[in-house]
């Protein structure tokens, strides 16, 4: 009787532990209706009802649709994101602002131009470092233009103020250049500044190499932020490769020979010769030697034929 009741309620979807508890409380001779009422009173539910009550995480998508749930992401989707292939940008706010203001005015608009330029390229990590005392009202000896831009950039978590305080009426300012180089070094990013940071180069040899290889200089041309196309010189990487973590190597292009068909270097010439594409590139002297050897060899063979009986 016990086994038959167990099989009956198991087919309905109830768990064995709940059924055993009810049968122990009511006895083996309890009616099926009483057992069912006790299971309902205990709050036990069939497994089929529990699976229906739980909201399904996966939803049916119409055929031909490629949409996915907003919370779900494919594995490796972050790695394929183009923003992850770009380096972090750390901007020397004081240097950029004073450069845009012709070293007379702290122009906050210059900082905004630099930030917008990197945003348009797709950079997501952009930090600007500015001393905290630039938050104070402007004075005659340190004029500031468009100071409201600093507040907007701070709300966007782009601008970072380096600490400063006043001790007995004198302002104590922390060295903001150290913040800039340290954050850029830890993030393996790029420093945007026209300063060479020579004191920090002498302080740390690792920072010396990093500043030499990751310093991006710039110019302002008619309120336009313009970094150079060759940040490390004519023989260095392009600007796009300089700002990306995975540089793209350009295809090797052969430069045509300036002498053309008059070139006498032959196979030793390092330039491209379209007329020698399918033939051995011999020098003119080697070609003359090869031509003179052929008739001499033919003449010796004829003499041998005549002498032989």
TrEMBL record:
Gene3D superfamilies: 3.40.50.11980
InterPro entries, per the entry: Rege-1_UBA-like, RNase_Zc3h12_NYN, ZC3H12/N4BP1_RNase_Reg, Znf_CCCH
ZnF bounds (C3H1-type): 251-276
GO molecular function, a single term: zinc ion binding
Cofactor needs: Mg(2+)
One GO cellular component term noted in the UniProt record for this chain: cytoplasmic ribonucleoprotein granule
Domain C3H1-type: 251-276
Superkingdom field: Eukaryota
UniProt keyword list: Endonuclease, Hydrolase, Magnesium, Metal-binding, Nuclease, Zinc, Zinc-finger
Family: Belongs to the ZC3H12 family.
Record protein name field: ZC12D ribonuclease
Natural source organism: Urocynchramus pylzowi
Gene: Zc3h12d
């Amino acid at each position: 009787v016990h086994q038959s009741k167990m099989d009956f309620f198991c087919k309905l979807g109830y768990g064995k532990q709940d059924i055993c508890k009810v049968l122990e409380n009511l006895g083996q001779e309890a009616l099926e209706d009483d057992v069912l009422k006790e299971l309902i009173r205990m709050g036990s539910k069939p497994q089929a009802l529990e699976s229906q009550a739980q909201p399904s995480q996966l939803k049916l998508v119409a055929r031909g649709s490629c949409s996915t749930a907003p919370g779900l992401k494919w594995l490796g989707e972050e790695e394929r994101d183009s923003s992850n292939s770009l380096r972090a940008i750390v901007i020397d706010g004081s240097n950029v602002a004073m450069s845009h203001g012709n070293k007379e005015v702290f122009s906050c608009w210059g900082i905004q131009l630099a930030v917008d330029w990197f945003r348009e390229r797709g950079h997501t990590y952009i930090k600007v470092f500015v001393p905290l005392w630039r938050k104070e009202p402007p004075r005659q000896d340190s004029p500031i233009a468009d100071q409201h831009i600093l507040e907007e950039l701070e709300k966007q978590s782009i601008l970072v103020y380096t600490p400063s305080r006043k001790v007995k009426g004198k302002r104590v300012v922390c060295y903001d250049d150290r913040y800039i180089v340290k954050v850029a070094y830890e993030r393996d990013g790029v420093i945007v500044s026209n300063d060479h940071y020579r004191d920090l180069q002498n302080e740390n040899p690792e920072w010396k190499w990093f500043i030499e290889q990751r310093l991006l200089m710039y110019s302002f041309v008619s309120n336009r932020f313009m970094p150079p196309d060759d940040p490390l010189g004519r023989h260095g990487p392009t600007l796009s490769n300089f700002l990306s973590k995975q540089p793209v190597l350009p295809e090797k292009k052969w430069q045509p020979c300036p002498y053309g068909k008059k070139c006498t270097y032959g196979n030793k010439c390092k330039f491209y010769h379209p007329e020698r594409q399918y033939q051995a590139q011999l020098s003119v002297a080697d070609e003359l030697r090869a031509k003179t050897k052929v008739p001499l060899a033919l003449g010796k063979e004829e003499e041998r034929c005549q002498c032989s009986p």
